[in-house]
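Predict structure. Chain length: 96.
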Amino acid sequence: MRTHTDTDTAGLPVLGVESLDGRLVQYSWPIGQDRLRLLLCGLAPPGLGSVVGLDGDSPRLVLSEPAHADWAGTHSGPLIAAAVRIWLDTFRDCEG
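Prediction complete.
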């Protein structure tokens, strides 16, 4: 696992930041869970939701903020793909 020193507003380690359709999406890890928390940098409210099930075959986007539902619905594929890529890049060498 790579070591990360940046943390989000909740104190969770930030594993990556991706640009999608002009918005910066921050991916942070609730330690011990197979999900990444998504925040929209510079927007209010910043919360978007989580990509859950990253240890399985069918990760999915779960929204926590209705204000961004339309945008997230249109971009769910790329949001999930980025989460999977970040997850695999971070944890590919871990066992168990």
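Summary: The longest helix spans residues 76-91.
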